[in-house]
Structure formats: structure tokens, C-alpha cells
Write a structure and sequence with these properties.
Elements lengths: L1 H14 L11 H4 L2 H8 L3 H15 L11 H14 L3 H8 L3 H18 L10 H15 L4 E11 L18 E8 L5 E9 L4 H6 L2 H8 L5 E3 L10 E2 L8 H27 L20
Parallel strand pairs: 1-4, 4-5
Antiparallel strand pairs: 1-2, 2-3
Helix pairs in contact: 4-5, 4-7, 5-6, 5-7, 6-7
Amino acid sequence: MALMQLFHANNRNNLRRNRIFRDRLNPLDAYDDHELLYRYRMSRQTLMRVIDMVRDDIVHETQRSYALTPEQQTFAAIRYYATGSFQTVVGDTMGISQPSMSRIVQRVSSALCRHAGQYIRFPTTPRFQQAVKEGFMNEFTFPNVLGCVDGSLVQIKAPSTREDMYVCRKGYHALNIQGICDSQKKFLNLVVRWPGSSHDAFIWNESGVKRYMENHADCGYLLGDQAYPLKPYLLTPVRNPQSDGELAYNRLHQRTRQRVEDTFGRWKCRWLMLHKFGENIHISVSEWPF
């Protein structure tokens, strides 16, 4: 009996894997400014600002087991956003295991969402509104425009519950994200909560910006495509234009509203995780921090 116990104990010891602490890359030391921008889609200064912003949210209380620093966590998450690759591949380049990569992406994403309101803000003050209107007027000669609104699909992995709701019109699982941008291709508002089967008009009707515009209809216009309802504060193209004025309005409307499509396109090309040709977002919908 004692011999059998000794045999099983030795067998367990042989099967147990020793923990491996890998050498971890510090991109600030390894890459110059051009390489940082190429690999992380941000300048050195912007990366440092992002790290400082989320530092208190992601720092570990202790340094047990060589805990990852806020810098290492932020670089790993941003690299994952930028490449749209598998977490294993991104982790291998930085000396981080896949389970750790999964936790890092969740932790950093949640931290970024908590600070998003500092940078993604719809214009509600007279000075802010005037600046946005002047931007559209100078760029497109379209007066009194507060922003352009549209929806865009971001592919995700199939959820475990209500999977059918997330199948979009293009046949894959997605979230339908509503965005409003200014003339400088900066997002003023994002709604990230509705499944891919949701119509743009439905998402608009449920949004906070719609309620704000109804109560402040004289503050300016938003421009949307024909998927949106025509309202005093939401201008859409003229259906079946007949006169020269209607044709000229539609041309100007299309040229101006194109800015939101360009903004979504640049957003997805910079962060390939969001692009349909990148790796699907491997985060359960119930875990999304939005």
C-alpha cells in the first residue's frame, strides 16, 4: 500500500508543470516613435497619456508572481485592439499567456470605458455647439449642423443566449453601433448595446441624444441617411427629388453625411479588432462593460 502511494505521488510530481516566468517586452524601450505608431496606432505621447489615465484602475495591489505593471497591461491590450489577432499570438510577442491576455483585455477595456465620457461628448453648451457648427460650415458649407449619425456593424462571436438576435442583415453575429461625429472625424456620441438585428431607426429612438434633440430642437441639425425618420432636428435626403434645389440639397447632404461613414471606416482600419476581416471579438456579450 505504501509503495502504491509513493508511486502515485511521484506520478503527480512528474505531471505537475513548473510555472514559467517569461521575459516581457517593454515597447517604450524596444521601439522608436515610428515603430510605436506602426504597431500600436498611437504616438508615444498618446500612449503615455492612456497609461496614466487607466493606471489606478488596473494596477495590482501586490507584485506577487511578477504581476504585470499598468504599462505592460495597457500595451498588451492596445496591441490586441490594433492587430485583431488571436490573444495567444499577441501574448507570445509580449511574453504573456493567453489566459492573462484575456483578463488584461477585459480589465483595460473596462477602464477605458469608465473614462470614455471625458473624450466622447455630445455638444450641449453654446460654445461647443458653435465650434462644431463652424467646423461643418467651413468644411462643407452646410449651416447649423451639430453632427452626422449612422450605424455600423462590429462582428462578435456567437453569444450563448439569444444568439439569433445578434445575426445581422449580412449574416454574421454583430453589434449594431450608433455613432455621431463632427467634421473632424471625432466621435461625439456612441451607443454600444444593441444586437446586430436592431434597425438604425430603433437604436436612434432609444438613444439619449434623440431625447436631448427633442427638447432642444432649435440648437441645430443632425444629418442621417434614409434609415432615419425625418424630424425638425434630423435631416434626411429628399426621396425622389424633382427640383434643382432638391437635387442640390441631396448632393450637399450626401457629401456632408459621408463624414460619419469615413469616421467609422478609419476607426475600424486603425483598430482591426473591430474590422470584419480581423479576429472576432472573443468576449461574451454578458461581459461587455458598456
